[in-house]
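Subgroup meeting minutes
Present: P.N., E.W., G.H.
Scribe: E.W.

1. P.N. recapped why we're keeping a running log of single-chain structure predictions: easier to compare across weeks, and new members can see raw inputs and outputs side by side.
2. G.H. added today's entry (62 aa).
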Amino acid sequence: MGSFHKRSKRKRGVILSSFGWQRLQNAHQNSEIEVNSEQPLTLEYLKRNDRRDSYSRKMDSD
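Output recorded in log:
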């Protein structure tokens, strides 16, 4: 009989320098200004505009 291999959920993450963190924060603020008329981006907005492929979305929901 075949053996059963349980798929482990892949954990993702990054380590940012303080300069990298500042750049990320600036990009986030700029996207709120450009995309959402200076309103904070909400979870609902991000879900509606999720551009990842269906496989990636499925893997994150498991």
